[in-house]
């Protein structure tokens, strides 16, 4: 649970809400096919459907400074470094502007390429 406080009170953000913002922001980026989730039984990465984007996101909180790790599948023929940089910038901007929380780092793990 993340908290943002000021003179008027406090706002508490659940990790699920933050993960949803991250997942939706990621899916808005060009070249992203979807979020990935590791299937524990056989070790394969599966493409997540719309309502489960948050399962491809891990959020770490240290003194209300957030670091994010996410798992994506990208489109074949696109430049992965450009896609990753776009994802990082979009997530950092959206999360900080929507919530007021500070994002220290975003790690993009590309788990697959799809045609």
UniProtKB/TrEMBL annotation:
Family annotation (InterPro entries): Asp23
A Pfam family hit: Asp23
Family assignment from sequence similarity: Belongs to the asp23 family.
Protein name: Uncharacterized conserved protein YloU, alkaline shock protein (Asp23) family
């Amino acid at each position: 649970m993340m908290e943002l406080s000021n003179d008027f009170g406090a706002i508490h953000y659940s990790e699920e809400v933050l993960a949803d913002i991250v997942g939706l922001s990621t899916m808005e980026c060009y070249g992203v096919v979807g979020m990935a989730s590791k299937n524990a039984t056989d070790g394969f990465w599966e493409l997540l459907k719309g309502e489960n984007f948050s399962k491809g996101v891990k959020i770490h909180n240290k003194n209300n400074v957030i670091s994010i790790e996410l798992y994506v599948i990208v489109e074949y023929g696109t430049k992965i470094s450009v896609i990753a940089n776009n994802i990082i910038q979009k997530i950092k901007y959206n999360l900080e502007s929507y919530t007021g929380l500070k994002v220290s780092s975003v790690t993009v793990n590309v788990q697959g390429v799809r045609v």
